[in-house]
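Repro:
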Amino acid sequence: MRYVHLKAIAFSAILSLMAIGDGLACSCERNPTAAGILAQSTMVFTGIARSSVVVAPGASATTFEVTEGFKGAEAKAFVVVRHPNGPSASCGVQFETGQSVTLAAHQSAGGLSTTFCSTWMFLPHVGLRDRLLADMRTLRTATATAPASAPATALATAAAQARGPDGWRIENLPDGRPAAFGIGTIDGARHVVALACGVEKRPELAIVPAARALLVETGDGIWALPPDRPADALAAGLIDAADNTFKLSLDGKAFPAGPAAIDAFDKIGKDCEQRSGWEYGKDDDKQMLWIFRRAEDGGAPFLTFGKPATGWLLADLSCEPRRQTLIVRSTALPRGAKNGQAVPLKLRAGGQEYSAPARIKILAEGDVPGFAVARFALPQRLLASLRQADEISLKTQDADMTLPARGAAALLAPLERACGF
């Protein structure tokens, strides 16, 4: 899943002053169409509001988990939207945690945002939503320009049928596209990792038999690439022939790497760029990963879920050196959060819930408004729950977020070793 930072900026659909039923007195387009919305917007999606926080007088930032993307967003991505939070008459809009909404957003040099003019047409009581959604789905299908490609299941089938000795090679899929196949024997069992350009105009990943994640170790840390998140199959800056620390593993077990793996990744990245315009080798602003970074200069190690292109994070796990304490930071802040405020932070994973007191730390600058920081003593049970989890839920009062857990589970071992748990 990927993460997009949005800054307050007016949506370009504001045209002329008019009133459009149900008290709509903002300057908005009167008769929006699906084609017009998609053409005028940088991003259009349906998502669940996971958290919302006031970031400036009259402005809030809401984090959405995308459930369906129509333009510029993918399902399971996390998107942070800044928007005016006043009354609708002044183009303000507010989102309740847990609310599912469809909205459009526009981006310029300053970033992206949404306003009431970008959301009112999707409100159920307005009567336009069903038609607009149907039309956008039709347009999405009709205008898809991605090359014919194997979905994850077909790629996994090809991986299961791969033959040959351990190592990496390029072979064509049934539709003619090249795919990189890596074969490795781990503890006497045969494992195959496959990479190809996917339906999302970006590389996709398949692992047979199933593993929680393919771990890629570079000088920047250990990156977890889960097979159920194909958009994360290649990371900008990850493939570097000069990086002598490049290593691969499946859930901590060594997998063949070396120059052959680097060459295979490189070829698939360039093939995807040529076929579908994926920007190989550039920062991917939609990508979010779990990354383990070792302690530096006596500090603490970090297991971070965030956007590697900028270092912007949603949450992370760390520890106090030489202490049996797990530190959890979350950017899901309650409404009206104040610096130093004490709130409970609840973490749910693997069917278990854990709670610890947290302190709010508001940041004066940066990409996130701040953190809720909690310390969990003797966290072995919590870590065991994380190993079994598919999702991690973090909640502070009226704000919450849900993160994928498979990449985190695959990286818990180096975190525990570094922390001395």
